[in-house]
Amino acid sequence: MSMFNSINISSSGLTAERLRMDIISKNIANANTTRTANGTPYRRQVVTFKTAENSSFKEHLNNSLNKNIAQGVEVESIKEDNSAFKRVYDPGHPDADKDGYVLMPNVNIVTEMVNMISATRSYEANVTALNASKSMMMKALEIGK
What we know:
Layout: H1 5-29, E1 45-51, H2 57-66, E2 73-80, E3 86-89, E4 101-104, H3 109-143
Antiparallel strand pairs: 1-2, 3-4
Helix pairs in contact: 1-3
């Protein structure tokens, strides 16, 4: 096991959570976008993570033999949320239908803010773990003096 594994795991978490915060920010920014390039309201996007896997057979075999479980995290996909759009009565809106209803994006600001807080806390936890690893390495180097 390399002494840099903990740093690699924390850095993969930082990268993944940063992307998650970017997607959440995009959702919040488009919470009122009623018409996109394809003519429909903006659809909320969701990030899915998975455990980072080594790609070669040799790496899989070594991990099995050495019982290395943690490899970090990576983004599996960014998918659109297929929940229904909200219908809002606004007959003066340019995108209103004949009954005066406008299809609004399926973005709930409260949900997005809770997800943003969660992503921020996860990011902070990865920073703390990274700093702890760095501190332990520095202390180990001081022992040799």
